[in-house]
């Protein structure tokens, strides 16, 4: 009787979910069919499931893998139970929403599987509702639009890669500047995103949302890719597996070279070199150590933003220039160490430490001869930056009586040292006519957060609290006397989220929270601490629903209020406050699988964005989109063929506060097709399939040409790419 009772007694069962390459699988759903208890595998593939006895049946599933059933035996408790899942084609009808750890991550994983990344720009476009535009020769960070924001280059969305921040605080060109071009798209494993200020572990810039990229831990195979296309476009890529036969270690290196002249009459002479390496080791106690190193360098020439009047009167074409001496160069070197460890069966530690060296030099001319009728208005923005940081978080799964509770808490530090941050009036990228700003700055951000998730049956309640401390220091080198200007600020950001599983394939959510974004250090100290960390108040109500087996719908009604809207003034090198604003809207996403190989997706957003301190008709927020639409039809591995057609649309939108100047919308279609046989893949990409005449970026700018007596305020734009075709050949080994 003692033997029988001891073996029948419910216990904790520890297991590890792997793929056929012996690599851990994250977010696999482990369900005890007998007792109805459940768990998810962690980043290390590990899980602990409660209330489990000998004879119970476990169901282990992950979208894109064959479901497996395991009968628990007495030996299952003696060591960590290994479970191997076999990869297979995605089947949307197998997805059960309540079993997904993160539905947003699952959606992007589905999108990446049916539409693999082949450019760093596409990486951001994987976020539903996010639109980007390039306006400076390909080397400058993209302009971002999300939830009624013209985010410029990252003011209202935080972007991270492997826990390392991409946003640059107090940047020479603009606050939050996010140059993601150091990310080689083929190395991306996972994209997590969230919209709104609702996440305790996300801080600065997380007002419209966040995007987190995770790189691959291993390569299934090595590959060499070569691409050529219109406008002298060339891309080479090498992906090399360095530890192919090692079971507990992975290492690979990826190298990328990209060059193009673009469609412009003055060649862009753009080139970029990327090198990325990663080493991953798993210890006997299932700890995981990751080391990554990367280097990126880029240079380019640009035709800048051209005035509409010069195109209309025939003086220049859409691909001409007023000042073709614009351009720049930039580089970034990164080192990142990540360490994950289970402290106990129910407590895990995740930490990373990083260092980045970043250099930037940009030449622009927004107004031509408005300020200087002789030499022109060209400016140089330059900086040299060192970033040090560390993040650590602990996740503990416990219970409060019969209520399961998951508590996450963490600490973080980021320290930026920026030397010789400069704004100067220049001529022909050679002569400095006047130094407008020059100085050194230090900015430190220390943060702490705690997040709890209480499971009351079908209802999950998740309160969170975040604390951020900032220290701003600036030394103005243009002052006669050496002085250090400084300011400090602390902000507390509460969040409260609710998730309700109305059915196995219907989840409702209500999210609420307060977020913020920081201002530029130079503006902070000159304003004596005014408008340092304006708050953002947000609310989301929505659902994720599978009304039919092969259809997934996600939708949300949302509202966001900002205490202060920041507008970047490029030729002055400052960030100007423009008052309180509010935005509200509706997001809708759809994923449908016709059969094993044909997928359809689309994402639409409707937004109302206004200033609350200006009268009606004078309260438009410049460049805030009212309606966006993006999606496509994808073929995935049909007898070796894959590809698809993609579209993106943004409507006409106000370019100034009274809507008297309008930025024209566009609808652009891209097409790609690939055929794989043996170890070779042949493919081609067509951008702007129907050769649409469209403006990629647009601004209402006051400018004066050299032959004009008076200035004119109107649309200045960068033309979008015309019909463009590129062919690719890849060899895998």
TrEMBL record:
<keyword id="KW-0813">Transport</keyword>
<dbReference type="InterPro" id="IPR036942">
    <property type="entry name" value="Beta-barrel_TonB_sf"/>
</dbReference>
<keyword id="KW-0998">Cell outer membrane</keyword>
<dbReference type="Pfam" id="PF00593">
    <property type="entry name" value="TonB_dep_Rec_b-barrel"/>
</dbReference>
<dbReference type="Pfam" id="PF07715">
    <property type="entry name" value="Plug"/>
</dbReference>
<dbReference type="Pfam" id="PF13715">
    <property type="entry name" value="CarbopepD_reg_2"/>
</dbReference>
<keyword id="KW-0675">Receptor</keyword>
<keyword id="KW-0472">Membrane</keyword>
<keyword id="KW-0798">TonB box</keyword>
<feature type="domain" description="TonB-dependent receptor-like beta-barrel">
    <location>
        <begin position="287"/>
        <end position="689"/>
    </location>
</feature>
<dbReference type="InterPro" id="IPR000531">
    <property type="entry name" value="Beta-barrel_TonB"/>
</dbReference>
<keyword id="KW-1134">Transmembrane beta strand</keyword>
<dbReference type="InterPro" id="IPR012910">
    <property type="entry name" value="Plug_dom"/>
</dbReference>
<dbReference type="InterPro" id="IPR037066">
    <property type="entry name" value="Plug_dom_sf"/>
</dbReference>
<dbReference type="InterPro" id="IPR008969">
    <property type="entry name" value="CarboxyPept-like_regulatory"/>
</dbReference>
<protein>
    <submittedName>
        <fullName>TonB-dependent receptor</fullName>
    </submittedName>
</protein>
<feature type="domain" description="TonB-dependent receptor plug">
    <location>
        <begin position="102"/>
        <end position="208"/>
    </location>
</feature>
<keyword id="KW-0812">Transmembrane</keyword>
<comment type="similarity">
    <text>Belongs to the TonB-dependent receptor family.</text>
</comment>
<dbReference type="InterPro" id="IPR039426">
    <property type="entry name" value="TonB-dep_rcpt-like"/>
</dbReference>
């Amino acid at each position: 009787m003692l033997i029988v009772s001891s073996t029948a007694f419910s216990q904790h069962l520890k297991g590890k979910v792997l793929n056929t390459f012996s690599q851990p699988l994250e977010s696999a759903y482990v369900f005890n069919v007998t007792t109805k208890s459940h768990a998810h595998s962690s980043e290390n593939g590990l899980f602990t499931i409660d209330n489990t006895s000998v004879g119970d049946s476990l169901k282990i599933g992950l979208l894109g893998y064959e479901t497996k059933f395991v009968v628990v035996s007495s030996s299952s408790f003696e060591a960590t139970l290994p479970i191997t899942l076999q990869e297979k084609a995605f089947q949307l009808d197998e997805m059960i929403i309540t079993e997904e750890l993160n539905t947003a991550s699952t959606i992007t994983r589905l999108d990446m599987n049916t539409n693999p990344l082949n450019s760093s720009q596409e990486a951001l476009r994987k976020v539903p509702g996010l639109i980007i535009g390039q306006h400076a020769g390909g080397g400058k960070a993209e302009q971002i639009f999300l939830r009624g924001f013209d985010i410029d280059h990252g003011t209202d969305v935080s972007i991270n890669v492997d826990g390392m921040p991409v946003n640059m605080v107090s940047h020479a060109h603009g606050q939050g500047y996010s140059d993601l071009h150091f990310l080689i798209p083929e190395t991306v494993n996972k994209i997590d995103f969230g919209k709104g200020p609702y996440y305790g572990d996300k801080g600065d810039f997380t007002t419209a949302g966040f995007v987190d990229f995770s790189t691959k831990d291993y390569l299934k195979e090595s590959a060499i890719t070569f691409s050529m296309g219109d406008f002298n476009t060339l891309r080479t890529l090498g992906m090399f597996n360095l530890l192919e036969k090692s079971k507990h270690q992975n290492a690979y290196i990826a190298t990328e070279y990209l060059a193009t002249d673009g469609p412009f009459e003055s060649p862009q002479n753009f080139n970029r070199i990327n090198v990325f390496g990663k080493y991953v080791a798993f210890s006997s106690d299932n700890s995981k150590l990751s080391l990554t190193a990367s280097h990126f360098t880029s240079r380019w020439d640009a035709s800048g933003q051209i005035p509409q009047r010069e195109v209309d009167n025939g003086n220049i074409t859409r691909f001409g220039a007023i000042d073709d001496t614009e351009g720049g160069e930039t580089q970034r070197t990164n080192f990142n160490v990540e360490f994950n460890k289970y402290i106990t069966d129910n407590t895990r530690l995740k930490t990373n430490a990083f260092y980045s060296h970043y250099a930037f030099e940009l030449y622009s001319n927004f107004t031509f001869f408005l300020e200087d009728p002789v030499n022109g208005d060209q400016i140089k923005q330059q900086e040299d930056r060192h970033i040090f940081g560390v993040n650590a978080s602990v996740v503990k799964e416990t219970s409060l009586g019969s209520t399961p509770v998951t508590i996450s808490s963490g600490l973080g530090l980021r320290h930026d040292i920026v030397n010789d941050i400069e704004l100067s009036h220049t001529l022909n990228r050679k002569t400095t006519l006047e130094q407008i700003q020059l100085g050194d700055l230090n900015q430190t951000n220390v943060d702490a957060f705690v997040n709890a998730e209480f499971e009351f049956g079908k209802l999950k309640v998740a309160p969170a609290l975040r604390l951020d401390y900032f220290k701003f220091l600036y030394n103005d080198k243009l002052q006669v006397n050496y002085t250090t200007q400084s300011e400090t600020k602390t902000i507390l950001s509460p969040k409260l989220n609710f998730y309700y599983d109305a059915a196995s394939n219907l989840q409702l959510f209500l999210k609420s929270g307060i977020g913020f974004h920081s201002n530029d250090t130079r503006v902070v100290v000159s304003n004596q601490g005014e408008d340092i960390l304006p708050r953002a108040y947000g609310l989301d109500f929505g659902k994720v629903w599978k009304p039919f087996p092969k259809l997934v719908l996600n939708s949300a009604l949302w509202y966001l209020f900002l205490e202060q809207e920041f507008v970047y003034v490029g030729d002055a090198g400052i960030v100007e406050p423009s008052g309180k604003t509010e935005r509200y809207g509706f997001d809708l996403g759809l994923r449908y699988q016709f059969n094993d190989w044909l997928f359809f997706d689309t994402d639409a957003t409707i937004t109302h964005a206004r200033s609350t301190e200006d009268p009606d008709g004078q309260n438009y927020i410049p460049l805030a989109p009212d309606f966006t639409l993006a999606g496509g039809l994808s073929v995935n591995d049909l007898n070796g063929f894959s590809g698809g057609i993609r579209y993106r649309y943004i409507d006409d939108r106000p370019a100034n506060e009274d809507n008297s100047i309008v930025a024209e919308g566009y609808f652009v279609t891209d097409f790609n097709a690939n055929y794989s046989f043996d170890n070779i893949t042949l493919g081609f990409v067509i951008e702007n399939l129907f050769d649409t005449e469209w403006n990629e970026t647009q601004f209402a700018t006051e400018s004066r040409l050299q032959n004009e007596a008076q200035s004119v305020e109107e649309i200045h734009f960068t033309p979008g790419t015309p019909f463009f075709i590129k062919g690719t050949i890849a060899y895998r080994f």
